[in-house]
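Exercise 7. Given the components listed, write out the predicted structure of the assembled complex. Treat all entries as one system.
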Amino acid sequence: MLGAFISIIQRDLLLAYRRRADLMNPVLFYVIVATLFPLGVSPDAEFLGRLAPGLVWVTTLLAALISMESIFRQDFEDGSIEQLLLNPHPFSLLILGKVVAHWLITGVPMLLIVPVMAMLLHMPVQAVPVLWITILLGTPILSLIGAIGAALTAGFRGGGVLLGLLVLPLYVPVLIFASSAVSAAADGLAVSGQLAMLGSGLILALVLAPLAISASLKISMS
Amino acid sequence: MPTPAPRVLEAHDLKCIRGGKELFSGLGFSIISGETLVVKGSNGSGKTSLLRIICGFSQPAAGRVTWCSESVYGHENYRQQVSYVGHQSGVKPDLTVLENLVFMQRLAGENSKEPEIKEIVRAAGLFGQRNMMTGKLSAGQRRRLALAKLMLQQRTVWVLDEPLTALDKEFIGRFEQVLKDHLENKGMLVVTTHRELKIPEHRVKRIGLS
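Answer.
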């Protein structure tokens, strides 16, 4: 069973590597926002530093949303989802493998870029490690929740708008706890409460989301 | 020693509605090991919808399909015995021929046996293209690859939607032999096709959709 789980991750990583141009979209979006925002609003370091926690997290959230639309699209079009359904292993486990691969492709680059973005936006140095932890805990939740919406809209053409409407309200708690943790760290306050909420949210999403995603995909297929 | 109960794939009173239109109703069939169900009908008559119901991908508006008397929808044991080749073949265009088969085998939880896979690729007439991206193959070659999966997985129930589309005469002959071998090994076959398949006629049942 673990072999099949690892295989689907390997396969999706290989496919992502072969379509490197698509891979760059969320990262590019991230970099563009970080560089254009100071030009469009104000280059004032103190002003940017105050906005940075929320700005970084809104950008993370939108970048995650952009990448979600494609998570099941090709599998749906080329009939791979049907083949996964006929697999002897639990469908939800294989789907979790796909979400893990998606997070490795989109979430990990964000983890690497976010300290640079924080510096560009003059975020206080003591908040950067907390920002990094919130991205580490929060982006898998975004991938897991986003995949539920992507599974429900996989059968629709132009399902991107619907995906946003479905998923964005569910992203709000992650945004609130994560940006609140980073703001608190910037002000030198305790952040354990917010991080604990994000951690428990991640565990909950890991347990429940694969079941919801697989049920949504079955509905989309029928 | 008691003889195991025969495996039976049956459907009773099936009704299918798509886009508000009734495609078929009151449809039934029953096949056992070694038998073939050939589904015929014009375009849009519901052949693919029927195959998807038989695979358990979707539920009929009425009636049910059973495997050994249990509904196939959500039937774990049945799911592991079905191979489906539809219009979309589940073949990844950005993987090579060999990679596609290796991942298919690994995802099924089996260790990839490269010599066995290479033999199947050779049987499918794709050995020269084994390291080529599937997206660069012709439609007929992609079809061959999708059908090669049947030989790789060796499951009991083969559900094939227009399997001969885009195939050349020579490969059709070889593929018909594969189907005969499958049926002789107590397999079952459910197939939609516009062409006549050369398989033992006395074990073929037919359904016509209009």
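Discussion: Chain A has a mean pLDDT of 90. The interface with chain B takes residues 1, 3-4, 7-8, 10-11, 14-15, 18-19, 77-80, 82-89, 94, 221-222 of chain A (CB under 8 Å).
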